[in-house]
Amino acid sequence: MKKQPIIEIDDSREFYRGTRFRQYGIGLNVKRKDDDYYEYMLTIVPGESDYLLLTCVEGYKSGSPLALVKTEANEMYVTAKSLKRSMGIENVYLLNDE
Questions:
Q1: Domain span including residue 33
Q2: Do 97 and 72 meet the contact criterion of CB atoms below 8 Å apart?
Q3: Taking the complete model, does pTM exceed 0.85, yes or no?
Q4: Cβ distance 44 to 55 under 8 Å?
């Protein structure tokens, strides 16, 4: 799996539900620094078109929400700018299957 730092992504890039992000350095009690992360995925909020939800999908907090991310003009995508505002940019990476 390829990781791209969110800070390097253009603010206008669009992300849709199912897109995954990983946030490192969160303070888990793990032996390897590379295992100190939570992985989040953009998911829909039933009955809501103004936001997508960043939901934890890996780790003991699986299923827990992190943040609502504002969608663009009632579309079902968010921009990198909105995501950065909601999630932050420090130690955050976009995960690609490439």
A1: 2-96
A2: no
A3: yes
A4: no
Q: Total domain count for the chain?
A: 1
- Residue whose token pair is 């829909």: 44
Closest by alpha carbon to 37, among 49, 17, 51, 20?
20
81: its two tokens: 């700018």
Give the tens place of pLDDT for each residue, 62-97: 888 888 999 987 678 999 999 999 989 999 999 987
Element (H, E) at 87: helix 80-87
Q: CA 46 → CA 49, 51, 53, 62, 87, distances in Å? A: 8, 10, 10, 19, 21
Q: What is the pLDDT of residue 98?
A: 61
Q: Please, are residues 37 and 27 in contact by the beta-carbon 8 Å criterion?
A: no
Integer Cα distance of 91 and 98 in angstroms? 20
Residues 53, 68: contact at Cβ < 8 Å?
yes
> In whole angstroms, what is the distance from residue 14 CA to residue 70 CA?
12
